[in-house]
Design a protein that fits this description.
This protein is mainly α. The chain has helices at about 1-30, 35-95, 100-105, 110-135. The mean pLDDT is about 80.
Length: about 140
Amino acid sequence: MYFLLILFFSSLIGITFMIGNKLLMLQNGQMTYEESAETFLKAQHLEELKHSAIKTIKKYSYAGLVATIRFYFRGIFFLKKKYQEIKIKVKSMHNKNPIKDSENKQEISKFLKIISEYKQKIRAIKHRIKEEENL
């Protein structure tokens, strides 16, 4: 941002210096009005150069824009692909971890074991009764 401001003001100062120099030369009589008109005609030639420069800049800016968009989409595709690969590697590393299995195995208290055994026995008895009575 600052670079652009510096560039703008330096070019503005350069333009004012050139115009001031021409005015001083006209006032001192070193240059006539006709000579200054000839320099204006030379500026017409600069206008043609300006138009041709603008055409080439537009052409190359279009090519640059196309290249930038292609690079963007290729980069996004590349990043998605690498992200999937990394995701798969992390899952495989996570599944191979032996510490996980030993941490998840917790010992169940004896009271809960006894209650679960009684529930299973009661279910089995209910199932037998239903079979015998054909319910």
